[in-house]
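Much of our argument rests on the idea that a fold can be written as discrete symbols. In the encoding step, the backbone of a single protein was reduced to a row of integers, each denoting a local shape. This step matters because it turns folding into a mapping between discrete strings. For completeness, the protein is quoted in full, as a sequence line and a line of structure tokens:
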Amino acid sequence: MRLIDADRFKNWIMDRYICFDHTLDDIDAQPTVDAVQVVRCKDCRFQDKGRNESESWNLCGYRPWLHVPTEDEHYCGYAERRADDE
């Protein structure tokens, strides 16, 4: 299964083709998946990256006292996207 942005798809179709109203209605009638976008650890403002002479590490800084290691592709419910200037 692929998730798409149906509204963006409709706009794309309308810009390129002459569409009947029922075609656009058929797009709207398709089932919707209840999904949320996730923030991966590599993009999270809580990820704490470090490096010393012998090793490097990635830790979750949401609860720094736990010292939970992370991988770039991991995600969790506490993640918040890092601002561009962070």
Observations:
- The chain has a mean pLDDT of 85.
- The longest strand covers residues 47-51.
- The chain has two domains: 1-35, 36-86.
